Amino acid sequence: MDISEIRTKYLEFFEKRGHIPIPSAPIIPENDPTTLFTGSGMQPLIPYLLGKKHAMGDRLVNSQTCFRAMDIDEVGDNRHTTFFEMLGNWSLGDYFKREQLPWLFEFLTKEIGIPKERLWVTCFEGDEKLNLPRDNESAEIWKELGIPQERIRFYGSKKNWWSRAGEPENMPEGEPGGPDSEVFYDFGTPHDAKFGAECHPNCECGRFLEIGNSVFMQYISAQGRSASGGKQTVFNLLPKQNVDFGGGLERIAAAKNDNPDIFRTDVFEETISLLEHYSDGKSYDDSRYTRSFRIIADHIRAAAFMIADGVRPSNTDRGYILRRLIRRASQHAIALGCAQGQEKENELVRCAIIVIEKYKGWYTKLDGEEVYETISREIWQEEKQFAHTLEQGTKEFEKMTTDNISGEQAFMLFTTYGFPIEMTLEMAEAKGKSVDENGFRALMEKHKDMSRAGSERKFKGGLADTSEATTRLHTAHHLLLKALQIVLGPQVKQRGSNITSERLRIDFSHGEKMRPEEIKEVERIVNEKIQEALPVICSAIPKSEAEKLGAQQEFGAKYPDMVSVYSVGPKGATKENPQFEKAFSIEFCGGPHVENTKELGSTFKILKEEAVASGIRRIKAVLM
Q1: Within 10 A of 34 (CB to CB), how many other CB atoms are there?
Q2: Which segment of 303-317, 369-383, 415-429 scores lowest on mean pLDDT?
Q3: Is-above-0.85 flag for pTM?
Q4: Cα Rg for the chain, rounded, in angstroms?
Q5: What does the pLDDT average to over 24-53?
Q6: Which of 251, 191, 184 is nearest to 213 (CA)?
């Protein structure tokens, strides 16, 4: 069973149970300045898990594209990837454990066909000090479903509790959280004693693979008093309790295949076959090269999606991560003997084309000649630039080989020229020199620790900013897009956005620099609509109707049959009678927005207009 079948089965399964499919958000968060990437399925839904009403209802389902930069160094084993799809279903104050766990069990065992004898589950063991009870209810439900007691394990809050702050004692006042119940697949592989005397679901030996996690968000933290009279965090039940499920699509496919190697799923099959063909006879099954095949396959898939979402290689933030992915893939392509940076249609570009063909039917952002050319060009150009860096690094290496290579020198080759330690070892061996690998590893661990502590805030999922200031700018963003279409022409389409409490940013399709008079006219239109005090209406309507109305769509998004649209104007419009035909603008959007443009209350001002890519312009603007 391939990932497309599993994805479709999952969405249809929960749609039959009253869930509304919602589109995958981009891997670049639209309104979350706390993080560079969307790292989980629930991240775009945090405002609704905190109590905000979702326009599509209380039962939602989707497959969310995710990227976790912290996993880059882990890629190479049989289960870690940077990019992945997270299957998710949510109850926003509707059903709870008694519905969620049986549905999940039915989906895994009956729809997908995973033997229940291979499933283990974990539950929250409770915390007496914090007066948090053991989650016996989930355990009892699992037993009723046919999971015997010996395959049900209890763990503390480090493993089976979710909140944005981590463990319950770290939760600030007003923070929601709750226990979770994880499902593991048992591959039955022999236990490696170096990971402990006993094998269990959270053992790192490779026998078990987590394939799904149901979070039961039922508590909210508050300040109370302990028996001795001191301050203590207490946990009250939320008035509306939520379910947040996340399941790794690729991991479920690996379980269905009964193969612990995620890279043996259909996701990576063609990519690895292509690399074997061009790698001078090297095989994925040869343990000397397996890691390189995996790194290339993962990194190029991630790079293709990042480029499609508007990221370009650079030395900062998202651009730096993209650059690192492409260059690391290039390093390992060299290790496999693949051509590098010599022609536009080289091996890494061919791998990217396979990704495009694999996913474009579902993720339309990958469909079309323009995105095909952009992804190919960006990867090829970055490879060419890296080839020059490698040439310089090789010259530096030659200077070092009058003696053995120290850990500091090997680390410098890695950080300055991108030489992986494997490459340095091979080059040193060819010259009869040794490398202080232990010294290099120690410096790498220190480097990783520093990177985690300097970048944790950016790569960790957090609360989407739904402050009043950001909400106002989000509404101004809608006005701006329509004004651009009025001034520059209806061919203008949004190609990306980022909105914080300080400013808005929009990327849009337009072939030339805007003239000063065009910028002034756009500003005039937006400010006019603010002054007109137009109502902003949210409506849930069939997608076909929204398309007939000409509602603007997010670039590359795939929408369900029922969609949420926001319309601005005309005066007198209401939720019961939105008067779409007279609206100033209509967009597919999940919110949040102000209720009337008069709430923007300030002067709209464009700060900067610039090019970011061929045919793509960027505007940064504020409400002054």
Answers
A1: 16
A2: 415-429
A3: no
A4: 26
A5: 80
A6: 184
